[in-house]
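Q: Now give one record:
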Amino acid sequence: MPEETSGKKQLNNFQQRVLVGIAGGALFIGGIYWSQWTFAVLFLALTLLGIREFYQLLSLRGFSPNYNAGIVLGCALFILVFLLQLNLVSLSALYALPPILFFVFISELFRKKEQPFVNIALTLLGMLYVGGSFSMLPILGFLNGQYSWQVIMGTLLLIWTSDSGAYFAGKTFGRHKLFPRISPGKTWEGWIGGAVFSLAVGYVLSMYLLDLALPYWLGIALIVSIFGVLGDLIESLLKRSLQVKDSGTIIPGHGGILDRFDSLLLVVPFIVAFLKLF
């Protein structure tokens, strides 16, 4: 009887993961595809929730990041970059960033918390790790001057397919551990399989998503295969250091925002740098 109950529970968990994955995927794809405004609302919400989740993790270990300042300023950074792409504000608005960042220092004077500079550092870390990365997505969305979903959607597709390729290659051929201290399940064979699969998908994308030529899609695929894994490992390192299994529970059956977007957070800055420099 206990085995039957356990089996039903596993089936229910799997069904929940599938249903939430389908619904979330549809919402996600629709938000990016529909318009620049739905894209902005979607990722502004993810920025807010992601920074909040990061601070909640730190609070579990007794740290005291400044939730309000970090969330407000992280979201303000996303909005600023988005408005810059629409030419609704000028580049001179970037001069406001240093004073805005120092607001975190000033606010700590009034919080009366222990280890004030640890709190400041962790508050800024959340803004940079989550808010800074998500804030670079509008640059990809407006790469050619007008909003287009192609580069963002293509990047996400490459991340998902790279993960899938790595999983199946690792299950089939995995022998040599990639980073056993942090993520015992990852193997070199899995990483190579994910990279090959990602490059193949990048080639296919170049035939249908014409905003970028083949060399750029292959470059993005290579960046995803390298820095996507590193982003995953960094988030695993964070969770291990804080002794938690998942970053949150906001996505039923899938964990938290950081669990789902760990690869994207590290990949996006490198893709932006690649496309802008080359």
Observations:
- The chain has two domains: 36-135, 148-278.
- The chain has ten helices and two strands.
- The two ends are 62 Å apart (CA to CA).
- Residues 148-278 form one domain.
